[in-house]
Design a protein that fits this description.
The protein is mostly helical. It is built from 18 helices and no strands. It starts with a helix and ends with a helix.
């Protein structure tokens, strides 16, 4: 019998450790790059990254998720899927190249043409990586996935830093993104055991493509709404303002996104195995949800207070104007974390259309809100976009709770208790940091102030876990005796 919560703990342990290492690499690269690039260069580089991210969501046309959800899979089918997703990567790269002149004309920026054309290489590399990477997820090989993730971050970070120091400007962001795709492919082929046959059959792949197309629809809509703010801010407010907004968004959302991605990657294959047992699935989902909030909510509280000293360190105060946006977006990040936990359940239950509908509704609400805010409240600047993020996410959460009450019999009261437990440390952290902010200890600025705030938040969070929730560190880790059993179960 599969212990869903322990499988998730084991996955979070391995992927979380790897992600922490990867995030440290990313933070180091971000500090170096943001300190070297101008606001205009940051805004210019953001547009190719956003366009690439939207098309990248179509990599494999959702076949990766279909592969994980499938109950049976043979080597011939794996090979057929590999060649189809590799071909899809080539097609997506070609589409991005074809779109380059359109975006160049829209933004009246000739430099976008070459930046977008080179970004297309990332789509080809990711398309080749889809099946080998998802096979690692299907077999719950979280240690190997973590290693792949860390190496990819290392490749991207090193490339960005070297090119930024060399004065490459926006090219540092674009080529760093391509380097991530290259290292990802090399690492997954080296650490995985998948080797494709010279075999492809559409009849074998049809059932995966049919399911995957629904998942891909959800994915592309997700990335459309996630990146639509960049396109609108860049068009209506200019590249320099976009650069400032991009830094604020990354500071507020990037760490939360990392946690969400780890937990989602761990949770989905486990949910898929528990789809026949709603009680076990519900318990795994609630445990997953509490874990997410216990990580992202304290982080949001810390970033709210640490935004000013953190941005003072980046670029010698060049990005201090982003502080108000960060302080709104950190709370939007917490609410967004709540909404992003549900689509994995829908797909595990074989209902990807639910995730697609959710993404479409989110796209309409966010894009409409962004446009209205930027058009009718120009005096607010990018803060109007931040307020839209903050106001739309609660509405989406209520919709998800209504759907899951029918799908997995999740009661509102049960979810709210988990939510309160996850958000529990926030009032204590806010009060503690508020008192600390009035202390002479924070009279200075820069790194000492930042480190003191982080140490205080960590200590309060640890005390909440230890004395309020009565949770010990070893309880957050997988049970030692079940690791082998879990692995053997996943390989059978």
């Amino acid at each position: 019998m599969i212990d869903g919560q322990d499988q998730i703990k084991r996955g979070i342990f391995w992927l979380g450790s790897a992600t922490m290492a990867a995030r440290l690499l990313d933070v180091g690269a971000t500090v170096a790059v943001v300190g070297l690039l101008s606001t205009e260069q940051m805004g210019l580089g953001s547009l190719p990254l956003s366009a690439c991210a939207i098309l990248e969501s179509l990599s494999g046309i959702g076949i990766g998720s279909a592969l994980i959800q499938a109950k049976t899979l043979n080597r011939q089918e794996e090979s057929s899927l590999f060649w189809i997703t590799s071909g899809a990567g080539l097609v997506l790269g070609s589409i991005l190249i074809a779109l380059a002149p359109v975006l160049m004309f829209t933004y009246s920026e000739p430099r976008l043409l070459a930046l977008l054309a080179v970004s297309a290489l990332k789509l080809v590399l990711v398309g080749i990586s889809v099946v080998p990477l998802q096979l690692l997820s299907k077999s719950l090989q979280f240690r190997e996935i973590g290693a792949v993730q860390t190496l990819a971050s290392l490749g991207e970070g090193a490339t960005k830093i070297l090119l930024a120091f060399a004065g490459a400007g926006a090219w540092a962001l674009v080529l760093g993104n391509v380097a991530r795709g290259l290292v990802l492919l090399l690492a997954v082929l080296a650490l995985g055991r998948f080797r494709p046959l010279w075999h492809v059959s559409w009849s074998e792949a049809r059932r995966f493509v049919r399911f995957g197309a629904k998942v891909a629809g959800s994915g592309v809509l997700f990335h459309l709404y996630k990146n639509s703010d960049n396109f609108l801010v860049g068009k209506l407010l200019g590249l320099e303002v976009l650069g400032m907004y991009k830094v604020a968004f990354d500071v507020a959302m990037q760490a939360t996104d990392t946690i969400i991605n780890v937990v989602a990657r761990v949770g989905f294959p486990v949910y898929a195995r528990l789809a026949h047992d709603l009680a076990a699935l519900r318990a795994a989902f609630l445990g997953n949800t509490r874990s997410i909030f216990l990580m992202v909510a304290p982080l949001a509280a810390l970033l709210f207070f640490a935004a000013e000293p953190l941005l003072e360190l980046l670029g010698g105060g060049r990005w201090s104007g982003a502080v108000p946006a960060v302080r709104v977006l950190v709370w939007a990040a917490v609410l967004r974390a709540a909404t992003t936990t549900f689509p994995s359940v829908y797909m595990a239950l074989g209902k990807p259309s639910y995730a697609t509908i959710e993404s479409f509704i989110t796209l309409v609400l966010l894009v409409s809100g962004f446009w209205l805010g930027l058009t009718y409240f120009p005096e607010w600047g990018v803060l109007s976009v931040c307020y839209v993020w903050l106001s739309v996410c609660p509405l989406l959460l209520l919709g998800h709770l209504w759907v899951t009450r029918r799908l997995i019999e999740l009661r509102l009261g049960t979810y709210l208790r988990v939510l309160v437990a996850g958000l529990g440390p926030v009032p204590f952290i806010v009060l503690g940091l508020q008192l600390l902010a009035r202390s002479p200890l924070l009279a200075g600025g820069g790194a000492p102030r930042l480190l003191l705030l982080a140490a205080a938040a960590l200590a309060i969070h640890w005390a909440y876990l230890r004395w309020v929730l009565k949770v010990r560190l070893r309880e957050l880790l997988p049970k030692r005796g079940q690791r082998t059993a879990s692995i053997s179960t996943s390989s059978s």
